[in-house]
Amino acid sequence: LSKPEKRKISFRFIVLLLVATIPAVLVGFLLEDEIKSLFSDVAFASIMLFATAAALFISDSLKGERKILDLSIAGALSIGIFQAAAIAPGLSRSGLTIFGALLIGMTRSDAVRFSFLLSLPVTFGAGILELSKVSLPISTVLLSCLLAFSTGIVGLWLLKKLVLKRRLRFFGFYCIIIGIVGLIFRGVM
Fold first, then answer.
1. CA distance linking residue 54 with residue 160, whole number of Å
2. Are 16 and 68 in contact (CB under 8 A)?
3. Is the pLDDT of residue 21 over 90?
4. Cα–Cα distance between 178 and 89 in angstroms, integer?
5. pLDDT digit string, tens, across residues 78-102
6. CA 152 – CA 158 distance, rounded (Å)
7. What is the pLDDT of residue 156?
8. Across 122-147, average pLDDT
9. Residue 1 scores a pLDDT above 80
C-alpha cells in the first residue's frame, strides 16, 4: 500500500473508533449520578450478570466475515451503544462489545481486536477522571496501574482464546453463578 492509502485506512480506523466511543462518553457524562447509584444495588448488578451471560451464550453461535474496515459508521455506533450499556454494573464491556460486533457480522478475531481498541479511550479517560479524585502516593498509583495492566493483558489473552474457540459460555456460566450468589446475598433468592 502507498502512504496515502495507509493514511486513508488509518484515518477511517480512527473515525470508526471515535464514533463507537461517543455513546459511552455521552452516557458517562449525562448519567453519571444515576450510574453511580446503581453500583450500590447488588440485586441490579446480579440481574445484569444474567444479561451478560445471555449475550455470551449467544456470541458462541455467531459468526461473520466482516473486517473492521468494512464497518459502516452505523455499525461502529451500534457497537458503541453496547459499550455504553456496559457502563452499568454487571454488564461486561468486552463481552457486550464483542457480542455487538459479532451481531453485525464481524469476524471473531476482528470483534476481539475492535473491542480491545475501543476500550482504550474510555478506560483511559475514566481513569484520568477518577485519578483526579484520589489522594494516594504516586508509588501506590503506579503499582496499582502496573498490576491492573498486567492482569488485564492476561485476561485479554484468555478472552481472545475463548472467543476464537467459541467458548464464551464458560464466562457465561461464571456470570450466572455470581449473579445467583448476589441475589442470595440480597435475600432475593
1. 19
2. yes
3. yes
4. 13
5. 999 999 999 999 999 999 999 999 9
6. 10
7. 80
8. 77
9. no
Take residue 183 and report the three cell numbers written for it: 441475589
CA dist 167 → 15, 65, 98, 110, 135 (Å): 31, 19, 13, 16, 41
The residues, any chain, with a CB within 8 Å of residue 47's CB and separated by 6 or more, are 90, 179, 183
Cell of 122: 474510555
Domain span at 133: 3-185
Q: Of all residues in the chain, what percent carry a pLDDT higher than 90?
A: 58
- When divided into structural domains, the chain yields a total of 1
- What is residue 48's predicted lDDT score, i.e. its pLDDT? 97
Q: What is the C-alpha separation between 29 and 180, in angstroms, rounded?
A: 31
pTM: 0.86
Amino acid at 94: S
The owner of cell 502507498 is 2
* Residue whose grid cell is 477522571: 129
Name the residue among 53, 46, 50, 51 with its Cα closest to residue 168: 53
Length of the chain in terms of residues written: 189
Report the alpha-carbon distance of residue 22 to residue 116 in Å, rounded: 16
Q: Could you tell me which residues come within 8 angstroms of residue 170 by beta carbon, excluding any fewer than 6 positions away?
A: 162
| Distance separating alpha carbons of residues 1 and 23, to the nearest angstrom | 33
